[in-house]
Amino acid sequence: MQSRSLIVATAGHVDHGKTSLVKHLTGIDTDTLLAEKERGLTINLGYAYHHFQHQDEERNISCTLGFVDVPGHTDFINNMLAGFGAVNHALLVVAADDGVMPQTKEHLSIIELLGIKSGIIAITKTDKANSEQLESVIQEVKQLTKNSIFKAAKIFKVSNSTQDGIESLLNHLKSETVRVESNQDASVNRNFRYLIDRAFTVKGIGTVVTGCVKSGSIGKNEQAAISSCNDSTKIKGIRIDKRDIAAITINQRAAINIDVGLEAVSRGDWLTDSKIVHPVTRLDTTINLVDPNLSIKSGAEYHLYIGASHHIVSLRQLDERGTFFQIKSHSAIIAHHGDRFIVRDPASQHTIGGGTVIDVFVPRKKRASEDRIKSLTALNQADNLALKSLLEISPTGLNLREFSINRNLKWQNVELLLKKLKNEGVEYVRLKETTSKDEIILFHEYFKNYAKRLLTQVENFHESHRSLQGISEPALSREAQLPASHLFFHSILQILIGKNLLKLTGTLIHHPSHKASLSVEEREFLAKVRPILKKSENIPPRTRELAEQTGIPLKKLESILKQTAKSGSLVKVAENRYYLPETIMNLAEFTEKLIESSPEEEGFSVIQFRDASGIGRNLCIEILEYFDRVGFTRRNENTRVLRTEKENIFAK
Ligand SMILES: Nc1nc2c(ncn2[C@@H]2O[C@H](COP(=O)(O)OP(=O)(O)OP(=O)(O)O)[C@@H](O)[C@H]2O)c(=O)[nH]1
Ligand SMILES: [Mg+2]
């Protein structure tokens, strides 16, 4: 059986009859707090549901019409804002005997600023107004809403006292519920995000949270992360009102039983897919100011309402036009591209604007540079356009992991977007940075330029050093001066080696056809020394011992060893120790295996390397320091870890 769910938040001035209306529509009184009863007004959010079956010729649909009832009193605006955190429909309530009042206007502007998609209007207390009064309030409301999402909204006249008009409003909302589009497609592309608005304990069951699914879906027994602490929790049960269900999807409200203590969750936290948990204290956004002439004071504190949470923040205008603003918060914020928020001024107690999150990966430096504004402009577009524009303006490549987390895109969807780009003829290369989780894509035009630079540098090197086999990676990196990190350079180099445009011999990079011209003396020397080094394998003789074994005088030997190492035929590991390239490759392989066998691949100590290899301690240190130097390993106090795979450093 199909299911549909429409969650509506009420809005309107205090005492205009919101809670009474929800009660008549659902039979549930949401003002449950003692203080609410005593004061006769709503303080906290209330929740109520009306379930019904819809049957027509083709379908039998199980429908949920849900309400989030918000307080009208300005003192509880925090709660009102939390109520709208994940809701897409609004019911604007205006009392016929009172007309448009301050919070009618403020709630309307909040609804607009939060990008709520649709709404209807109810004029309540019709029993307390004559027809003239009623007509004048209707005109007033029409005037107020003529440029808003309510401009084409139906206006229902109701009385909570006589119940006049309630049925027709309920019927309208029910038909809207049936018409809600099934959002299966939307939930396939994005990861699960569920905004928590309440958390409590139920005896015998444990911690229960209630909230609304903002994106994706989740099923019973699956795992989700709690955004505030990144702890994982099992979804023990899901309930909509009193019914247990197996899974929930986008736009549904539900109670979820989780297996963490109550202290771990509170209003404003999210249950999300663990892949996208990314708390930040800086966000780049667009903000629409209610009064466009208002100037944002850069040192001032503002109140930010996002999701169902509240933060004290400062704002900084990033561009001259005033499109982009950076938000800096004292507390961690969970947000993704496209999330809406409200900014209030604590001094005037007014909503000053609302905005949309553009990027949660704010650069450390040059936060308002021309390039950054270009990136923000690119990001401020639909997924596919953003990806294409960003690619074209990113000379150091586009970080796909960040792109997918920022926009809460499932990886398969990112792959789909990339495929579409290729189909449109947009060319790029993928740079795999083996030591980090990041995957970078680089626009082909940039890649071509860098590749040319590297190839030219290698050619120049050959021109001026005929007798040398090639240039070392650090030297080439220095010469080529690519605009990003060494890892970036390294990945480009790997692509060129993979395409056979460059070649690695030992640790030297060279043109594939270049062969260092060894002199007759060098060749004869190699023929003599290779068998000795081969036989002694991992523990080659020191130069002094080698001099004895070959009969070559030490001084002369040292000079010819040095010369031959430059051709890549021997590898100088320490001042008095040379290895064959293939022995180095074997030792590198040995090191990789040692790491793999260490608990949780944590690395190994010199002693562990010594015991496993049977090589003496001092020589072990020499070998490992050589590995550090060429960028194969990294020393962390007493342990060593791999920086990259051996193939990235040594010739096969
Ligand atoms: N005569 C009459 N009284 C009404 C009607 N609707 C609500 N009231 C009364 O107006 C008062 C306020 O109603 P509520 O439903 O609590 O108003 P509210 O909008 O929820 O108020 P807040 O939540 O505090 O913003 C109560 O005493 C209701 O009984 C109506 O249609 N006719
Ligand atoms: Mg109320």
Q: What is the count of DSSP helices, taking H or I runs of 4+ residues?
A: 20
What is the CA–CA distance across the termini?
60 Å
Rounded average pLDDT: 91
Beta-strand percentage? 25-35%
> How many strands, what sense, and barrel or not for the largest sheet?
6 strands, mixed
What general outline do the C-alpha atoms trace? Answer: elongated
Strand order of the largest sheet: 2-3-1-4-5-6
Share in helix:
25-40%
User: What's the count of strands?
Assistant: 31
Structural class: alpha+beta
Alpha carbon gyration radius:
34 Å
Low-confidence blocks of residues: none
Structure keywords:
652 residues, six-stranded mixed β-sheet, single chain, binds guanosine-5'-triphosphate, alpha+beta, six-stranded antiparallel beta barrel
Describe the structure.
The mean pLDDT is 91. The chain has a 6-stranded mixed β-sheet, sandwiched between helices. Strands 7-8-14-11-10-15 form a 6-stranded antiparallel beta barrel. It is of the alpha+beta class and 652 residues long. The radius of gyration is 34 Å and the shape is elongated. Helix 9 packs across helix 11 (411-423), helix 12 (444-464) crosses helix 13 and helix 19 packs across helix 20. Helix content is 35%, strand content 28%. The protein contains 20 helices and 31 strands. Bound molecules: guanosine-5'-triphosphate and magnesium ion (MG). Residues 12, 14-20, 40-42, 71-73, 124-125, 127-128, 159-161 line the site of guanosine-5'-triphosphate.
